Amino acid sequence: MKLSETLLKKIADRKAVVGVMGLGYVGLPLVREFCDSGFTVHGFDVDERKVKMLNAGQTYIEHLPGKMFKDYIKRGVFRATADMKELRRPDAILICVPTPLDKMREPDMTYIRGTAEDIAKRLRKGQLIVLESTTYPGTTREVVRPILEQSGKKLDQDYFLAFSPEREDPGRKDITTKDIPKVVGGMTRDSTRVACALYEEALTSVVPVSSCEAAEACKIVENVYRAVNIALVNELKIIFDRMGIDVWEVIEAAKTKPFGYQPFYPGPGLGGHCIPIDPLYLAWKARQYGKPTRFIELAWEINTFMPEYVIGRLALALNERGQAMNGAKILVLGLAYKKDVDDVRESPSVTLIELLQAQGCKVDYHDPHIPVAKPMRAHNLTNMKSVPLTAKNLKKYDCVLIATDHTSVDYDLVCRHAALVVDTRNATGRKKRPAKRVVKA
């Protein structure tokens, strides 16, 4: 029997074991979907703390409850490990590792290369490897395949290789991983066929494309689209503020048009793992072809400037009240990069805190989803803990900076008791609260 047919039968019979490498905001939702679909799943992560928590039925991501994993473990359909020697066991390995930028704003392939090398050492005949980490077009073909074939194994003869971009939106409740259409592009026709068959068993909709490069480019296009439009509305915010016009009021009016317009909203900067980073992956790759990416570079410039703009507005507001930045007590509302999640990846709140501290401010934060500041690759907020949001505490600060508009925060309480509120999300303006002491930024 042809190798692909053997694997397809195992997938159809739910006898294929699925391996997920990287048990974070992308990997754990995949674990959930495949376990719920009747597959046995092995989770791999280099962080032994995460492995121990999961095997004990606990999690570190708010919207993925521990009791769910406790049930999977009890039923024998899931276990986590940090032992990469066990990579021979799964029939399909889904790679969900980080793809950050280095200090020169160029793609850091460390995690992808390291993961591919770990797999190559144990690669066995009949395995399917799928890269899900967002990256530039060409990564699967130019980086992953050569590493895998150092094992002596040949594509289609011994293993299958595909790319399928993650499309997670952490914290979203109306659309889950199962319902998000899954784009899949294989290195070969057989690789595409096998990868599609696997995802079709666990997800509602699969969208095959002609190649790995097409699938890689798909995710980049989605994030470039968002980055450019967010940059546009951030620039409009700055312009309209100078004109004395409320950009949020303008957006609410503009979105009443039933065609030709989609609302995007300004903020204190970009956050999350995708939008601040992925467009620069394409910009880097385009330079290899001698092509400029002017929209991408300009969008990055505008979005990256926003935290400094916010700090400038805050400094001006304090100055108008006779308060210097040096020594000012600031409470930052929201450490997560967006509302109602516990995800701090690339959060502009972290940059805001560091900029305030550099100005000599004494900074605390409140975030109902993050009781203790999480470790990050490029930032260090150790020893910071969320302070209770009470009337007494609010009166202690010279300014409250709203960086993330969590739903559970009582903004009426904030407006009543804070000496000054700098609002980057229009959190105080949605119910026409009194505008005293409130500055939009």
Proportion of helical residues: 25-40%
Mean pLDDT: 94
Radius of gyration over all CA atoms, rounded: 24 Å
Protein structure class: alpha/beta
What strand line-up does the widest sheet have?
3-2-1-4-5-6-7-8
Strand percentage, roughly? 5-15%
How many domains would you count in the coordinates?
2
Order of helices and strands: HEHEHHEEHEHEEHEHHHHEHEHEHEE
Essential attributes:
2 domains; single chain; alpha/beta; Rossmann fold; 13 strands; 441 residues; 8-stranded mixed beta sheet
Describe the protein's architecture and organization:
This protein has two domains: 3-210, 3-Layer(aba) Sandwich (Rossmann fold), CATH 3.40.50.720; 225-440, Rossmann fold, CATH 3.40.50. By secondary structure, the chain is α/β, with parallel strands linked by helices. It is globular and about 80 Å long. Helix 5 packs parallel to helix 6 (139-148), helix 8 (212-243) crosses helix 10 (278-288) and helix 11 (294-320) crosses helix 12. The chain has 14 helices and 13 strands. The strands form two sheets. An eight-stranded mixed beta sheet has the order 3-2-1-4-5-6-7-8, with helices on both faces. It starts with a helix and ends with a strand.
